[in-house]
Design goal:
Radius of gyration: 22 Å
Number of helices: 7
Order of helices and strands: HHEHEEEHHHH
Shape: elongated
Strand content: 5-15%
Oligomer: single chain
Largest sheet: 4 strands, mixed
Number of domains: 2
Distance between the termini: 15 Å
């Protein structure tokens, strides 16, 4: 019998299955490009750059996102009712209270950010607070708190790392191929070169599709 809990467990299993295939896909793409070019060094450069960028985004993405969105932090005295609502949901979820931000926008929206549950924040637009009834607002906030509790920010960072590796590998391969690089071109002929170029063009699209599929599963999990 399907329940909320079996639905959540199914989404977790599917998420890790997709992650496994994502890693296998990246290993294959890296091997293919390295074989065609006869050079391993660019593979390590791409991976290093992707991890360096993602390391910075993991530690500072919350500050960057909040600053770019124009969100302003609020204290309990600024909106006691909202604070009590978030506090009650955090107690029910067993989570520490995140920082609360408000965006002065009429469009109803909300998001969670931060590297872990102890360094998390949720942002709500003014339009969301004005247009939703209390039970509806609780549902939206509970969804965002679920992202925090399920470590979705960390998972999203890992996904960005993997997608970044694919994009960098494809970009490097196309640039090196364009400038006539690669020791395997004469050995493999035109077919291998065309195969590599098609793989370089399609790989980022495939990575984006897997990234969207994982994100979709995490949204379903947060809903559950």
């Amino acid at each position: 019998m399907a329940t909320i809990y079996t639905h959540a467990e199914s989404n977790i299993r599917k998420t890790w299955l997709l992650m496994f295939f994502f890693v296998v896909f990246i290993v294959f793409i890296g091997w293919l490009f390295s074989y065609l070019l006869g050079n391993q060094i660019f593979l390590f450069i791409a991976i290093g750059l992707a991890f360096f960028q993602s390391f910075l985004s993991y530690w500072y993405s919350d500050k960057i996102v909040l600053a770019m969105s124009g969100a302003k932090p609020i204290k309990k005295k600024d909106n006691p009712e909202l604070y009590r609502l978030v506090e009650n949901l955090c107690i029910a979820a067993g989570l520490p209270l995140p920082k609360i931000y408000i965006l002065e926008e009429l469009q109803p929206n909300a998001f969670a950010t931060g590297r872990d549950k102890n360094h998390a924040a949720i942002a709500l637009t003014r339009g969301l607070l004005e247009k939703l009834e209390k039970p509806e607002l609780e549902g939206v906030i509970a969804h965002e708190l679920s992202h925090i509790g399920n470590k979705d920010m960390l998972l999203q960072t890992v996904i960005v790392v993997l997608a970044g590796v694919v994009a960098l590998l494809s970009n490097f391969f196309l640039r090196i191929s364009f400038w006539g690089g690669g020791e395997r071109r004469e050995e493999g002929g035109g077919f291998l070169a065309i195969t590599g170029i098609f793989a370089a063009l399609l790989a980022p699209l495939a990575a984006s599709l897997v990234q969207l599929a994982i994100s979709r599963k995490r949204e379903f999990l947060a809903d559950a």
